[in-house]
């Protein structure tokens, strides 16, 4: 009989309750891990759907050009041997090579209009880009390579434009060069951009007339491009002076690449953004001309990403990271109430409270797929707070303890929501908040007699 009393006394002791609560918290981490896996699964599904939507609408755009391509002759001497292996004669073989010349200046004014596309519960941002490109070609200089004037095939010169997302081009491309207009046709190249993972294709113009070429004087050019694209728009600064101006209705741009826009001209507000770049030849490590083949310039791209603000799954994932904290602090509140009021709470009741806390995340995910994150968070948090408060009333009896639990849970969910919304100050606010919670717990537990356990 005394042994039975000692066993009952131990299981109701403070040490046993603390051990039991610790084991329950560790047990509840298992379903919490599955909840986080569910969030990641839904986020992966969203990315898959977004990629499929973007692929059909138009993928990200990278553009550089126009590039003046002029063929020229080079000569290779070949020795012909006779039957005895002696030199019998020399033959001169003509090899056709290409020289590539970049513009003296490029000015590109871009209007970027964003839009949202939906499929089921998923959403992505796409854009329509209207580009007005103009500039000038200077007289090409073949002297550094020792190429004679008679070996330059001006009559076969043409213009190249390299770009990704050919299917996103909305209208026929026509280049005005000098006094004439020239059409383009695509030439698949398949060169992969190591920095962005893009495949850039080449658009090649028809042969440029001699009078429209910069043979003895600079020649102006201009063209208009209309794109349907998504995620990113970028350029490569091949002009001796490259100026790009972008105006858009998108309110949360991310400027990416090697060059950032001028801070003095950059404007970002709720109505959209404006940005301007001016890049000089001295700002990049390549010259205005290339012989035999074009160099890989993809690593010098710059532009803008139309990023979605933190989406529902990212917020849900960040919220779930605090699941351990929510469970531990909620159990701590019940433990302190139990210890100070001498009310016995059964382990099964702790388990039910823990499962109710886990239901918050499944409610949050499912509701946020059909509504805004704020509404989903309010509904899920309110449901869980009401459920646990009502349940605690049947356990604790007195009204003041359930009200304390209601206030504690409401404050905790509000605190976590604030942290989720913050990015730059999340760590600072979280650290201060946790310090405050620790101080409150230490103050509340200062009068507990820990000697009778």
UniProtKB/TrEMBL annotation:
Domain of life: Bacteria
Keyword Membrane attached: yes
Pfam families listed in its UniProt record: CreD
Record's keyword terms, sorted: Membrane, Transmembrane, Transmembrane helix
Keyword match S-adenosyl-L-methionine: no
GO cellular component: plasma membrane
Membrane-traversing stretches: 322-341, 348-367, 373-391, 403-420, 426-444
InterPro entries: Uncharacterised_IM_CreD
NCBIfam families in the record: PRK11715.1-1
Protein name: Cell envelope integrity protein CreD
Organism: Leptobacterium flavescens
């Amino acid at each position: 009989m005394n042994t039975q009393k000692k066993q009952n006394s131990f299981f109701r002791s403070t040490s046993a309750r603390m051990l039991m609560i610790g084991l329950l918290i560790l047990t509840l981490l298992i379903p919490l891990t599955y909840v986080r896996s569910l969030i990641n699964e839904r986020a992966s599904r969203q990315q898959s759907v977004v990629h499929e939507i973007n692929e059909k609408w138009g993928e990200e755009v990278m553009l550089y050009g126009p590039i003046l391509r002029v063929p020229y002759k080079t000569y290779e001497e070949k020795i012909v041997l006779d039957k005895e292996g002696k030199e019998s004669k020399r033959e001169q073989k003509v090899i056709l090579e290409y020289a590539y010349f970049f513009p003296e200046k490029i000015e590109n004014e871009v209007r970027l209009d964003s839009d949202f596309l939906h499929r089921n519960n998923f959403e992505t941002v796409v854009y329509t880009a209207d580009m007005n490109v103009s500039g000038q070609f200077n007289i090409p200089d073949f002297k550094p390579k020792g190429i004679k004037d008679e070996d330059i095939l001006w009559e076969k010169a043409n213009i190249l434009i390299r770009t990704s997302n050919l299917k996103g081009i909305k209208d026929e491309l026509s280049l005005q060069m000098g006094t004439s207009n020239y059409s383009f046709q695509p030439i698949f190249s398949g060169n992969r951009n190591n920095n962005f993972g893009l495949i850039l294709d080449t658009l090649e113009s028809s042969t440029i007339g001699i009078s429209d070429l910069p043979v003895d004087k600079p020649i102006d050019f201009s063209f208009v491009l209309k794109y349907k694209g998504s995620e990113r728009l970028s350029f490569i600064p091949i002009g001796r002076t490259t100026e790009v101006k972008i105006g858009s209705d998108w309110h949360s741009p991310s400027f990416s690449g090697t060059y950032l826009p001028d801070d003095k001209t950059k404007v970002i507000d709720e109505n959209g953004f404006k940005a301007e770049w001016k890049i000089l030849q001295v700002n990049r490590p390549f010259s205005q001309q290339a012989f035999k083949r074009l160099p890989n310039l993809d690593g010098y791209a710059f532009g803008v990403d139309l990023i979605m603000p933190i989406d529902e799954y990212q917020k849900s994932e960040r919220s779930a990271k605090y699941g351990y904290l929510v469970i531990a602090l909620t159990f701590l509140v019940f433990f302190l109430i139990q210890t100070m009021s001498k009310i016995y709470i059964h382990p099964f009741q702790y388990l039910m409270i823990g499962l109710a806390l886990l239901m918050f995340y499944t409610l949050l995910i499912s509701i946020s797929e059909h509504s805004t994150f704020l509404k989903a968070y309010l509904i899920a948090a309110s449901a869980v707070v009401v459920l646990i408060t009502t349940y605690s009333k049947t356990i604790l009896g007195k009204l003041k303890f359930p009200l304390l639990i209601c206030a504690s849970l409401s404050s905790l969910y509000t605190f976590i929501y604030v942290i989720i919304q913050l990015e730059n100050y999340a760590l600072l606010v979280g650290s201060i908040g946790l310090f405050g919670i620790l101080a409150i717990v230490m103050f509340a537990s200062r009068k507990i007699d820990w000697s009778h356990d």
